[in-house]
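Researcher: I need the complex structure. Ligand is glutamic acid. Inputs:
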Amino acid sequence: MDYPAILEDIFREVRPCCARGRVATYIPELAAVPPDRFGMAVHTVDGAVYGVGECAERFSVQSISKVFTLTLAMQLADEALWQRVGREPSGNPFNSLVQLEVENGKPRNPFINAGALVVTDVILARLADAKHTVRDFVRRLCGVDDIDFDLAVAHSEQRTGHRNKAMAHFLKSFGNLDGAPEVVLDAYFHHCSLAMSCRELCTAALFLANGGVVPASGDRVLSASQAKYVNSLLLTCGTYDAVGDFAYRVGLPGKSGVGGGILAVMPKRFSVCVWSPGLDEHGNSLAGTLALELFTTKTGISIF
Ligand code: GLU
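Model: Output:
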C-alpha cells in the first residue's frame, strides 16, 4: 500500500475544503485557531508512520481525550462502569441535558460529555490525581514526555463551560457523581485541553488496532475483549449525532473533537488521525471527515 502517495493525494483534494468548515467558538480560545490547517498521519501496527501537512503540529484534542479516559476507567473499573454509563448512541448533541433528565442521570455513552464526566469521576475515585494520571498515560503511550495541557484552553473552558458545569451538578443530583462537581470538571477540562499532534494521537491509540497491546513495547493496555469494546463504542458513539453518517462514509471506528481532530482505528492494520479545525454542523471536522472517507476509499481498507 503506497500510503505516502495516498496521503499526498488526499491533502491536495481536501485542502480547498478546509475553509468550508466553521471553527468552534464556544470555547473562546479555540476560536483563535487558523482554519486553514490540515494534517493527517497513519501509524501501522508493524511500526511505520506516515504523515502529510501539519501532521506534527499540536492542536486541542478536546473530546478525543475521552478515548483515553475511557481506557483508564476500563482498566480501573471494568464492567462496573456500565452500571453508571450506557453503551448506546445518543442521537442528541454531545452536550444535551434533556436526555440526561429523561434517563435519570445515566448518560447514554462514555463519549458524550455527561458520560465522560462520569468516567472522569470513576478515575478520580480510584486515583487521587486523575488530571495528571491521564496526561502521563498518554505520554507513556506515545513515548513523548512533553505532551501537556494547554492551560489557556483549559482556563478558557473553565470560565465559559456553564453547560458542562450544569451537567456535572445534574449528575450529582441523580447520585451519579461521587466527587465534588468542581473537582470532576477541573480534571475533565484539563483532559480536553491536552495538545497533541496527529502523529502523537495515532501512536497513542495504536493499542486499539492491536488487540489492546502497544506494538512497540508489547505492553498490554487493555484485554483483547476490552479493545474490541472500545472500538465498538467508537463506531456507534464516537462522532456525535452524525455517527451513522460517519460510519456510512468512512467505515472505521473513530472519535472526533471540537478542536477539529478525528482519530480512527482499523483493527489489525493501523490507526489514523486527521486534523482540520473547521467543523460541520454536528461538530465533526468537515475536511477531516472527507479526508478519512477518501482514505478508506483509496486504500480499499475499512472494517466492512
Ligand atoms: N471540552 C469540550 C466540551 O466539553 C469537548 C467537546 C468535544 O470535543 O466534543 O464542550
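Model: Summary of the prediction. The chain has 13 helices and ten strands.
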